[in-house]
Amino acid sequence: MRQATVYIDHQALQYNLNRVKQLAPQAKIVSMVKANAYGHGVADCLGGLSATDAFGVACLEEALEIRELGYHQPITLIEGVFSEDEMQVAVDQNIEVVVHHQQQVDWLRTHKNAYVGKNLKVWVKLNSGMNRLGFKVPEIIEVINSLKAEGFTCVLAMHFANADAEQHPLNEQQKQQFLQVKEACAPVLASCCNSAALFKWPELNFDFVRPGIMLYGASPFADKSVKELDLKPVMTFEAEIIALNTIQAGESVGYGSHFVADQAMQLAIVSIGYGDGYPRAFPKQNYVAMDGQLTRVIGRVAMDMIAIDVSGLNASLGTKVELWGNTRLVDDVAEANGTIGYELLCRLSNRPQRKQI
Ligand SMILES: Cc1ncc(COP(=O)(O)O)c(C=O)c1O
Protein backbone atom coordinates (compact mmCIF):
# COMPACT_ATOMS: atom_id res chain seq x y z
CA MET A 1 0.00 0.00 0.00
CA ARG A 2 1.18 3.49 -0.82
CA GLN A 3 2.45 5.05 2.39
CA ALA A 4 1.68 8.76 1.92
CA THR A 5 0.23 9.70 5.31
CA VAL A 6 -1.00 12.74 7.19
CA TYR A 7 -0.55 12.31 10.96
CA ILE A 8 -2.60 14.52 13.29
CA ASP A 9 -1.07 14.96 16.73
CA HIS A 10 -3.71 15.52 19.41
CA GLN A 11 -1.20 16.45 22.08
CA ALA A 12 0.09 19.21 19.82
CA LEU A 13 -3.48 20.47 19.33
CA GLN A 14 -4.02 20.51 23.09
CA TYR A 15 -0.69 22.24 23.62
CA ASN A 16 -1.50 24.98 21.11
CA LEU A 17 -4.99 25.45 22.56
CA ASN A 18 -3.34 25.87 25.92
CA ARG A 19 -1.05 28.52 24.43
CA VAL A 20 -4.21 30.42 23.44
CA LYS A 21 -5.45 30.14 27.03
CA GLN A 22 -2.12 31.52 28.29
CA LEU A 23 -2.29 34.46 25.91
CA ALA A 24 -5.97 35.23 26.53
CA PRO A 25 -6.81 33.83 29.98
CA GLN A 26 -10.02 35.81 30.40
CA ALA A 27 -11.50 35.24 26.93
CA LYS A 28 -13.57 32.35 25.66
CA ILE A 29 -11.93 30.48 22.78
CA VAL A 30 -13.70 30.04 19.48
CA SER A 31 -11.47 27.51 17.69
CA MET A 32 -11.58 28.07 13.96
CA VAL A 33 -12.14 24.70 12.31
CA LYS A 34 -13.43 25.93 8.96
CA ALA A 35 -12.16 24.41 5.72
CA ASN A 36 -12.02 20.97 7.31
CA ALA A 37 -9.93 22.25 10.22
CA TYR A 38 -7.51 24.04 7.91
CA GLY A 39 -7.09 20.83 5.92
CA HIS A 40 -6.29 18.71 8.99
CA GLY A 41 -9.64 16.90 8.90
CA VAL A 42 -12.31 18.09 11.28
CA ALA A 43 -13.15 14.56 12.43
CA ASP A 44 -9.49 13.99 13.29
CA CYS A 45 -9.09 17.27 15.19
CA LEU A 46 -12.13 17.82 17.36
CA GLY A 47 -10.98 15.31 19.97
CA GLY A 48 -7.78 17.33 20.46
CA LEU A 49 -9.81 20.53 20.78
CA SER A 50 -12.43 19.25 23.19
CA ALA A 51 -11.38 21.86 25.80
CA THR A 52 -12.36 24.72 23.51
CA ASP A 53 -15.37 26.89 24.38
CA ALA A 54 -16.76 27.05 20.84
CA PHE A 55 -16.04 26.48 17.18
CA GLY A 56 -16.00 28.81 14.17
CA VAL A 57 -16.84 27.64 10.66
CA ALA A 58 -17.59 29.22 7.29
CA CYS A 59 -20.92 27.62 6.47
CA LEU A 60 -23.81 25.58 7.80
CA GLU A 61 -22.58 22.32 6.24
CA GLU A 62 -19.35 22.60 8.23
CA ALA A 63 -21.32 23.29 11.42
CA LEU A 64 -23.64 20.32 10.87
CA GLU A 65 -20.64 18.03 10.45
CA ILE A 66 -19.49 19.06 13.94
CA ARG A 67 -22.94 18.32 15.37
CA GLU A 68 -23.01 14.94 13.58
CA LEU A 69 -19.67 14.12 15.18
CA GLY A 70 -21.36 14.64 18.54
CA TYR A 71 -19.89 17.96 19.68
CA HIS A 72 -22.33 20.30 21.41
CA GLN A 73 -20.27 23.45 21.98
CA PRO A 74 -21.57 26.69 20.49
CA ILE A 75 -20.69 27.13 16.82
CA THR A 76 -20.49 30.44 14.95
CA LEU A 77 -21.06 30.75 11.21
CA ILE A 78 -18.55 33.47 10.37
CA GLU A 79 -20.30 34.46 7.14
CA GLY A 80 -23.74 33.86 8.60
CA VAL A 81 -26.44 32.00 6.70
CA PHE A 82 -26.73 32.18 2.93
CA SER A 83 -30.53 31.89 2.77
CA GLU A 84 -33.51 32.14 5.11
CA ASP A 85 -34.04 28.34 5.11
CA GLU A 86 -30.61 27.95 6.65
CA MET A 87 -31.63 30.21 9.53
CA GLN A 88 -34.21 27.66 10.70
CA VAL A 89 -31.70 24.80 10.56
CA ALA A 90 -29.13 26.92 12.42
CA VAL A 91 -31.56 27.71 15.23
CA ASP A 92 -32.67 24.07 15.49
CA GLN A 93 -29.04 23.00 15.88
CA ASN A 94 -28.02 25.78 18.31
CA ILE A 95 -25.75 27.35 15.75
CA GLU A 96 -24.99 31.07 16.07
CA VAL A 97 -24.81 33.41 13.11
CA VAL A 98 -22.87 36.43 12.03
CA VAL A 99 -24.97 39.13 10.42
CA HIS A 100 -23.11 41.32 7.97
CA HIS A 101 -25.92 42.71 5.82
CA GLN A 102 -29.49 43.85 6.35
CA GLN A 103 -31.15 40.83 4.73
CA GLN A 104 -29.49 38.53 7.29
CA VAL A 105 -30.80 40.79 10.07
CA ASP A 106 -34.32 40.44 8.62
CA TRP A 107 -33.98 36.62 8.47
CA LEU A 108 -32.77 36.65 12.07
CA ARG A 109 -35.73 38.75 13.20
CA THR A 110 -38.11 36.25 11.60
CA HIS A 111 -36.66 33.62 13.95
CA LYS A 112 -36.37 35.91 16.93
CA ASN A 113 -38.38 33.94 19.46
CA ALA A 114 -36.53 30.69 18.91
CA TYR A 115 -33.13 32.39 18.66
CA VAL A 116 -33.52 34.52 21.78
CA GLY A 117 -35.35 31.70 23.56
CA LYS A 118 -32.33 29.42 23.08
CA ASN A 119 -29.95 32.09 24.36
CA LEU A 120 -28.01 32.19 21.10
CA LYS A 121 -25.74 35.16 20.52
CA VAL A 122 -25.80 37.12 17.29
CA TRP A 123 -22.41 38.21 15.97
CA VAL A 124 -22.70 41.60 14.28
CA LYS A 125 -19.84 42.28 11.91
CA LEU A 126 -18.09 45.62 11.69
CA ASN A 127 -16.48 46.64 8.42
CA SER A 128 -13.70 48.85 9.71
CA GLY A 129 -11.65 48.97 6.53
CA MET A 130 -11.04 45.41 5.36
CA ASN A 131 -14.01 45.90 3.07
CA ARG A 132 -15.06 42.28 2.85
CA LEU A 133 -18.04 41.87 5.15
CA GLY A 134 -19.91 44.01 7.64
CA PHE A 135 -21.73 47.17 8.49
CA LYS A 136 -19.83 50.41 8.60
CA VAL A 137 -19.95 53.01 11.36
CA PRO A 138 -22.47 54.49 12.19
CA GLU A 139 -24.92 51.94 10.71
CA ILE A 140 -23.59 49.13 12.92
CA ILE A 141 -24.37 51.11 16.07
CA GLU A 142 -27.96 51.36 14.96
CA VAL A 143 -28.10 47.62 14.08
CA ILE A 144 -26.62 46.49 17.41
CA ASN A 145 -28.66 48.85 19.54
CA SER A 146 -31.92 47.89 17.87
CA LEU A 147 -31.15 44.14 18.14
CA LYS A 148 -30.32 44.60 21.81
CA ALA A 149 -33.56 46.49 22.36
CA GLU A 150 -35.42 43.50 20.86
CA GLY A 151 -33.78 41.13 23.35
CA PHE A 152 -30.91 39.73 21.27
CA THR A 153 -27.50 39.20 22.88
CA CYS A 154 -24.97 40.76 20.48
CA VAL A 155 -21.27 40.20 19.94
CA LEU A 156 -19.51 43.03 18.14
CA ALA A 157 -17.16 41.21 15.73
CA MET A 158 -14.34 42.43 13.52
CA HIS A 159 -11.41 40.98 11.59
CA PHE A 160 -8.04 42.67 11.06
CA ALA A 161 -6.70 42.99 7.53
CA ASN A 162 -3.07 43.34 8.64
CA ALA A 163 -2.69 41.78 12.08
CA ASP A 164 0.32 39.88 10.73
CA ALA A 165 2.12 43.04 9.57
CA GLU A 166 4.65 44.71 11.85
CA GLN A 167 3.31 48.19 11.14
CA HIS A 168 0.27 49.06 9.07
CA PRO A 169 -1.77 52.26 9.35
CA LEU A 170 -5.04 50.37 8.91
CA ASN A 171 -4.46 48.47 12.18
CA GLU A 172 -4.87 51.61 14.27
CA GLN A 173 -7.91 52.72 12.26
CA GLN A 174 -9.58 49.33 12.71
CA LYS A 175 -8.83 49.30 16.45
CA GLN A 176 -10.19 52.81 16.95
CA GLN A 177 -13.40 52.07 15.06
CA PHE A 178 -13.91 48.87 17.01
CA LEU A 179 -13.46 50.64 20.33
CA GLN A 180 -15.76 53.47 19.25
CA VAL A 181 -18.56 51.06 18.36
CA LYS A 182 -17.98 49.01 21.50
CA GLU A 183 -18.43 52.13 23.59
CA ALA A 184 -21.46 53.36 21.66
CA CYS A 185 -23.17 49.99 22.13
CA ALA A 186 -22.06 49.30 25.70
CA PRO A 187 -22.56 46.90 27.26
CA VAL A 188 -21.83 44.58 24.35
CA LEU A 189 -19.74 41.44 24.00
CA ALA A 190 -16.74 41.82 21.69
CA SER A 191 -14.39 39.74 19.51
CA CYS A 192 -11.64 40.85 17.13
CA CYS A 193 -8.57 38.65 17.62
CA ASN A 194 -7.33 35.99 15.24
CA SER A 195 -3.99 34.24 15.91
CA ALA A 196 -1.75 37.15 14.94
CA ALA A 197 -3.82 39.66 16.92
CA LEU A 198 -3.82 37.32 19.93
CA PHE A 199 -0.03 37.46 20.02
CA LYS A 200 0.21 41.18 19.35
CA TRP A 201 -2.59 42.91 21.20
CA PRO A 202 -3.50 41.23 24.51
CA GLU A 203 -5.54 44.33 25.36
CA LEU A 204 -7.94 43.44 22.53
CA ASN A 205 -8.78 39.90 23.65
CA PHE A 206 -12.15 40.95 25.09
CA ASP A 207 -14.84 38.25 25.41
CA PHE A 208 -14.02 35.84 22.57
CA VAL A 209 -10.79 35.14 20.68
CA ARG A 210 -10.86 33.32 17.34
CA PRO A 211 -7.56 31.47 16.81
CA GLY A 212 -7.12 29.46 13.65
CA ILE A 213 -3.65 28.83 12.27
CA MET A 214 -1.87 28.85 15.64
CA LEU A 215 -3.98 25.91 16.84
CA TYR A 216 -2.50 23.84 14.03
CA GLY A 217 1.07 24.83 14.92
CA ALA A 218 1.78 27.01 11.91
CA SER A 219 2.81 30.64 12.15
CA PRO A 220 0.54 33.60 11.37
CA PHE A 221 3.66 35.74 10.82
CA ALA A 222 6.05 35.61 7.85
CA ASP A 223 8.96 36.58 10.09
CA LYS A 224 8.32 34.49 13.22
CA SER A 225 8.64 30.74 13.32
CA VAL A 226 6.41 28.42 15.31
CA LYS A 227 9.41 27.62 17.50
CA GLU A 228 9.71 31.31 18.45
CA LEU A 229 5.96 31.43 19.13
CA ASP A 230 6.14 28.22 21.19
CA LEU A 231 3.64 26.31 19.07
CA LYS A 232 3.82 22.67 18.00
CA PRO A 233 3.10 21.51 14.43
CA VAL A 234 -0.02 19.34 14.51
CA MET A 235 0.35 17.80 11.08
CA THR A 236 3.19 15.58 9.92
CA PHE A 237 2.98 14.82 6.22
CA GLU A 238 5.08 11.82 5.36
CA ALA A 239 5.79 9.47 2.47
CA GLU A 240 8.35 6.78 1.74
CA ILE A 241 11.18 6.03 -0.62
CA ILE A 242 10.10 3.64 -3.36
CA ALA A 243 13.19 3.67 -5.61
CA LEU A 244 16.90 4.54 -5.47
CA ASN A 245 19.03 5.69 -8.41
CA THR A 246 22.63 6.70 -8.92
CA ILE A 247 23.12 9.31 -11.64
CA GLN A 248 26.30 10.66 -13.23
CA ALA A 249 27.34 14.24 -13.96
CA GLY A 250 25.34 15.50 -16.97
CA GLU A 251 22.30 13.29 -16.38
CA SER A 252 18.95 14.96 -15.80
CA VAL A 253 16.01 14.17 -13.51
CA GLY A 254 12.25 14.24 -14.04
CA TYR A 255 9.86 16.11 -16.35
CA GLY A 256 11.37 18.93 -18.37
CA SER A 257 14.88 17.67 -17.48
CA HIS A 258 15.46 20.96 -15.66
CA PHE A 259 17.80 19.53 -13.09
CA VAL A 260 21.11 18.36 -14.50
CA ALA A 261 23.60 16.78 -12.08
CA ASP A 262 27.02 18.47 -11.97
CA GLN A 263 28.52 15.44 -10.27
CA ALA A 264 27.57 11.82 -9.55
CA MET A 265 24.80 11.65 -6.95
CA GLN A 266 22.39 9.31 -5.18
CA LEU A 267 18.70 9.96 -5.74
CA ALA A 268 15.69 8.60 -3.95
CA ILE A 269 12.20 8.62 -5.44
CA VAL A 270 9.49 9.37 -2.88
CA SER A 271 5.85 8.49 -3.51
CA ILE A 272 4.32 11.92 -3.10
CA GLY A 273 3.25 14.51 -5.64
CA TYR A 274 0.86 17.27 -6.51
CA GLY A 275 -1.92 14.65 -6.66
CA ASP A 276 -1.57 14.55 -2.87
CA GLY A 277 -1.59 18.32 -2.54
CA TYR A 278 2.18 18.70 -2.39
CA PRO A 279 2.92 21.88 -4.34
CA ARG A 280 4.47 21.65 -7.80
CA ALA A 281 6.06 25.04 -8.37
CA PHE A 282 9.03 26.02 -6.23
CA PRO A 283 10.59 29.37 -7.14
CA LYS A 284 13.12 28.68 -4.36
CA GLN A 285 15.01 25.48 -3.49
CA ASN A 286 12.74 23.15 -1.53
CA TYR A 287 13.72 20.57 1.06
CA VAL A 288 12.32 17.51 2.82
CA ALA A 289 13.54 15.93 6.06
CA MET A 290 14.94 12.43 6.46
CA ASP A 291 16.06 11.18 9.87
CA GLY A 292 15.76 14.73 11.19
CA GLN A 293 18.05 16.10 8.48
CA LEU A 294 17.05 18.39 5.60
CA THR A 295 17.82 17.34 2.06
CA ARG A 296 17.06 18.86 -1.36
CA VAL A 297 14.10 18.08 -3.60
CA ILE A 298 15.50 17.60 -7.09
CA GLY A 299 13.77 18.41 -10.40
CA ARG A 300 10.06 18.88 -10.93
CA VAL A 301 7.37 17.61 -8.59
CA ALA A 302 5.19 15.16 -10.55
CA MET A 303 1.64 14.03 -9.78
CA ASP A 304 2.74 11.02 -7.74
CA MET A 305 6.48 11.28 -7.18
CA ILE A 306 9.38 13.51 -6.28
CA ALA A 307 13.12 12.94 -6.39
CA ILE A 308 15.35 13.87 -3.46
CA ASP A 309 19.10 14.03 -3.04
CA VAL A 310 20.26 11.28 -0.68
CA SER A 311 23.98 11.47 -1.47
CA GLY A 312 25.86 10.54 1.71
CA LEU A 313 22.64 9.75 3.58
CA ASN A 314 21.42 6.42 4.86
CA ALA A 315 18.46 5.87 2.52
CA SER A 316 16.80 2.63 1.58
CA LEU A 317 13.49 1.40 0.20
CA GLY A 318 10.78 2.21 2.73
CA THR A 319 12.69 5.00 4.48
CA LYS A 320 10.23 7.64 5.68
CA VAL A 321 10.52 11.17 4.37
CA GLU A 322 8.88 14.17 6.05
CA LEU A 323 7.35 16.58 3.53
CA TRP A 324 6.42 18.87 6.40
CA GLY A 325 6.12 18.45 10.15
CA ASN A 326 8.44 19.09 13.09
CA THR A 327 11.72 19.28 11.16
CA ARG A 328 10.69 20.69 7.77
CA LEU A 329 8.11 23.27 8.83
CA VAL A 330 5.08 23.79 6.60
CA ASP A 331 5.77 27.52 6.77
CA ASP A 332 9.20 26.96 5.23
CA VAL A 333 7.78 24.79 2.43
CA ALA A 334 5.22 27.54 1.83
CA GLU A 335 7.92 30.18 1.71
CA ALA A 336 9.86 28.20 -0.92
CA ASN A 337 6.58 27.78 -2.83
CA GLY A 338 5.71 31.50 -2.67
CA THR A 339 2.61 31.04 -0.51
CA ILE A 340 1.57 30.73 3.14
CA GLY A 341 1.25 27.67 5.37
CA TYR A 342 -2.54 28.14 5.50
CA GLU A 343 -2.83 27.42 1.78
CA LEU A 344 -0.64 24.31 1.73
CA LEU A 345 -2.51 22.81 4.68
CA CYS A 346 -5.93 23.52 3.17
CA ARG A 347 -4.92 22.28 -0.26
CA LEU A 348 -4.05 18.68 0.66
CA SER A 349 -5.98 16.18 -1.41
CA ASN A 350 -7.83 13.24 0.07
CA ARG A 351 -5.37 10.71 -1.37
CA PRO A 352 -2.95 10.53 1.58
CA GLN A 353 -4.11 8.29 4.43
CA ARG A 354 -4.98 10.10 7.64
CA LYS A 355 -4.07 8.93 11.11
CA GLN A 356 -4.47 10.41 14.56
CA ILE A 357 -1.51 10.08 16.91
C1 LIG B 1 -13.44 35.94 10.90
C2 LIG B 1 -12.21 35.13 11.18
N1 LIG B 1 -11.79 35.03 12.44
C3 LIG B 1 -10.68 34.31 12.75
C4 LIG B 1 -9.96 33.67 11.77
C5 LIG B 1 -8.72 32.89 12.16
O1 LIG B 1 -7.57 33.48 11.63
P1 LIG B 1 -6.13 32.83 11.85
O2 LIG B 1 -6.16 31.51 11.21
O3 LIG B 1 -5.20 33.78 11.18
O4 LIG B 1 -5.93 32.76 13.32
C6 LIG B 1 -10.35 33.78 10.45
C7 LIG B 1 -9.57 33.12 9.40
O5 LIG B 1 -9.59 33.41 8.25
C8 LIG B 1 -11.52 34.54 10.15
O6 LIG B 1 -11.95 34.66 8.88
Automatic annotation (TrEMBL):
The record's catalysed reaction(s) read: L-alanine = D-alanine
How is this protein annotated for GO cellular component? cytosol
The record's keywords, sorted A to Z, are:
Isomerase, Pyridoxal phosphate
**Any one GO BP annotation for this protein:** D-alanine biosynthetic process
Per UniProt, residues of the Alanine racemase C-terminal domain are 234-357
The positions annotated for binding substrate are: R132, M303
> What are the GO MF terms of this UniProt record?
alanine racemase activity; pyridoxal phosphate binding
Kindly give the InterPro entries that the UniProt entry links to this protein: Ala_racemase (IPR000821), Ala_racemase/Decarboxylase_C (IPR009006), Ala_racemase_C (IPR011079), Ala_racemase_N (IPR001608), PLP-binding_barrel (IPR029066)
SMART domains in alphabetical order: Ala_racemase_C
User: Which cofactor is recorded for it?
Assistant: pyridoxal 5'-phosphate
Q: Which residues carry this modification: N6-(pyridoxal phosphate)lysine?
A: K34
Q: Where is the active site?
A: K34, Y255
Keyword Isomerase recorded: yes
**Pathway given in the UniProt record:** Amino-acid biosynthesis; D-alanine biosynthesis; D-alanine from L-alanine: step 1/1
The EC number on file is 5.1.1.1
User: What NCBIfam families does the database record attribute to this sequence?
Assistant: alr
What does this chain do? Answer: Catalyzes the interconversion of L-alanine and D-alanine. May also act on other amino acids.
Could you say which protein family the record assigns here?
Answer: Belongs to the alanine racemase family.
Q: What is this protein called?
A: Alanine racemase
